[in-house]
Amino acid sequence: MRVLVLGGTGEARDLAGRLVERGDAVVSSLAGRVSAPALPVGEVRTGGFGGVDGLAEHLVTHGYDVVVDATHPFAAQITGNAVAACGRVGVQLVRLQRPGWSRHPLAGEFTWVDDVEAARVAAEGVGVRPFLTTGRQQLETFAAWDDRYVLARVVDPPDWAVPSSWEVLRARGPYPYAAERELLESRAVDVLLTKDSGGALTEAKLGAAHDLGVPVVVVRRPPVPDGVAVVESVGEALAAIGAKPA
Ligand code: NAP
């Protein structure tokens, strides 16, 4: 099988490794957003395809049998493009998406909102020392919070001048419980904002916030387009590749 893995996640890296091991021809695709990304084994290409048309042409030119969209649950644009392009050229598409935190034992305590702007509004009613873990791309949504301490954790530095009252912490997970708890306590955080990224690597903050009585605001995932085969683990993705659609 010739497989294109749309990546940028730990699951995509694991999948590429397993595909290489089992002898499939795999190319991993990265958007090129972060500096020094963790690279999967096997061949890697970097950069956008040029929308649906570009991706469709790429699939045909390179003779792919299958695309596994293992991008982040919030990377909705590339997911939509993959659905359209694979549908157009008749290439199998599997969406690999790790389980979200809507099934987390503490999910009922969280304030769930539809987007980052709604998270800002919800958090304003709750606390004054927020911890932002909603990612670098939409950090500017919180620019008006220039009158308070804000702890913002990002992989790469913001590309705009954040208010001087903010603390920007550059880090890449995993984030263990003890360190998360210490961070929340030492900064006297009183509201945590996050996206429903799911996965174990960034989950400990939810338990730490609960144990410290810090409310949590969670941005819901964008929906997966209808008609796409969704799997939640690398093992399921391996089984689905090449299988006839149900
Ligand atoms: P996005 O908004 O869904 O996509 C925007 C454009 O970036 C796409 O239209 C595509 O450009 C290009 N692109 C995205 N992922 C690509 C990939 N894997 N390979 C080649 N081109 C890609 O994506 P995003 O939210 O900016 O995420 C970009 C990357 O970061 C993804 O690979 C994702 O897995 C990773 N990531 C995202 C988040 C997040 O919170 N969004 C968090 C962690 C990691 P063209 O239209 O030109 O093809």
Jot down its keywords.
single chain, 246 residues, 6-stranded parallel beta sheet, binds NADP nicotinamide-adenine-dinucleotide phosphate
Strand order of the largest sheet: 3-2-1-4-5-12
Distinct ligands: NADP nicotinamide-adenine-dinucleotide phosphate
Q: What do the pLDDT scores average to? A: 96
For the record, give the distance between the C-alpha atoms at the N and C termini, rounded to a whole number. Answer: 19 Å
Rg, rounded, reads: 19 Å
Unreliable segments (pLDDT under 50, ≥5 consecutive)?
none
Number of strands: 12
What does the secondary structure layout of this molecule look like, with pairings?
Elements: E1 2-6, H1 10-21, E2 25-30, E3 43-46, H2 51-61, E4 66-69, H3 76-89, E5 92-96, E6 111-113, H4 116-124, E7 130-133, E8 150-154, E9 166-170, H5 177-186, E10 191-195, H6 204-212, E11 216-219, E12 229-231, H7 234-240
Parallel strand pairs: 1-2, 1-4, 2-3, 4-5, 5-12, 6-11, 7-8, 7-10, 8-9, 10-11
Helix pairs in contact: 1-7, 2-3, 5-6
Kindly describe this structure:
This protein is of the alpha/beta class and 246 residues long. The protein has seven helices and twelve strands. The protein has a six-stranded parallel beta sheet with strand order 3-2-1-4-5-12, with helices on both faces. α1 (10-21) packs across α7 (234-240) and α5 crosses α6. The longest helix has 14 residues, at 76-89. The chain is elongated. The protein starts with a strand and ends in a 6-residue tail after the last helix. The model has no long low-confidence stretch (mean pLDDT 96). The structure holds NADP nicotinamide-adenine-dinucleotide phosphate. NADP nicotinamide-adenine-dinucleotide phosphate (NAP) binds at residues 6-9, 29-31, 33, 48-51, 54-55, 71-72, 74-78, 81, 135.
